[in-house]
Amino acid sequence: MKFSKATNYALHTMLFLASSKNSKPIGVQVLAEKQSVSPTYLSKILTKLVKEGMITSVSGANGGYSLSHGWESISFLDIIQAIEGKSSLFDCYDHGPECPIRKVMLSSEEKMEEELRRRTIADLV
Amino acid sequence: MKFSKATNYALHTMLFLASSKNSKPIGVQVLAEKQSVSPTYLSKILTKLVKEGMITSVSGANGGYSLSHGWESISFLDIIQAIEGKSSLFDCYDHGPECPIRKVMLSSEEKMEEELRRRTIADLV
DNA sequence: GCCGTTTTACTCGGATATATGCTGTCCGAGTTTACCGGG
DNA sequence: CCCGGTAAACTCGGACAGCATATATCCGAGTAAAACGGC
């Protein structure tokens, strides 16, 4: 089990957008170049962030992506879940909600999420 | 990103072995049946636990798997890492060890591992 | 009843499908800006 | 100077290919206990 590269790209893109306080949108070409990833693939990833309202996209010439209003409160967990989905890391089949193993796994997972919820991109700028 | 089913099987097998205090080894057939998984596949998973010294296997008739001496101190993390490997959940390419995002991810991951290290199968019996 | 042989019940390991999800590409469509040429 | 049309610079979305890994199966080999059979 690994975090996907897509999550990595999303996090670094958010950090980059937050670092360049430019109000003008930044094209996906530029963002992709910084991370050595193809623009079309990055675009696909960023679309997920747009749908979650974390960033906004502007079509047409001089278009690109920029942070949404209220971006300062976006946590690592928000970004990760936008890419990876919100489902639990651990599936316990046929053992029901009372499965003691499941309980341990879920509580441990929750510890990580607490920390990821606490940390924001804005903290790093 | 998900924990693999193999990890689930490994954890439940450990719990089952710990619950049935029987000193006699238990055949993979029995263990597999409890979890609705094929015996040959489960065997492959359990081999990893054997290599890590958590359980021992006995060949031949009336053979099977049983807990190793000192099993009481085996943590969830031990079992999970035996199956999933010990590498970090988050890879940061080309950003070096000073990458601030990497630091946040690793520290969050560490929170989960702390909890998994604290919890043992023996606690659940 | 004893001992050697065979059968049976197991695990072990490698090789090999199959499935699933991640990564990445391609292309057509829509959108906005910049440019350009005619009046 | 203005205005309309065209080109250029973008994002968006779906379809699709390639690849890695997880999942699962198959089979031959080794191993230990039980069963058997001759003496």
TrEMBL record, chains A, B:
InterPro entries: Tscrpt_reg_Rrf2 (IPR000944), WH-like_DNA-bd_sf (IPR036388), WH_DNA-bd_sf (IPR036390). It holds the Pfam family Rrf2. Transmembrane segments: none annotated. PANTHER family: RRF2 FAMILY PROTEIN, WINGED HELIX-TURN-HELIX TRANSCRIPTIONAL REGULATOR, RRF2 FAMILY. This is Rrf2 family transcriptional regulator. It comes from Bacillus carboniphilus.
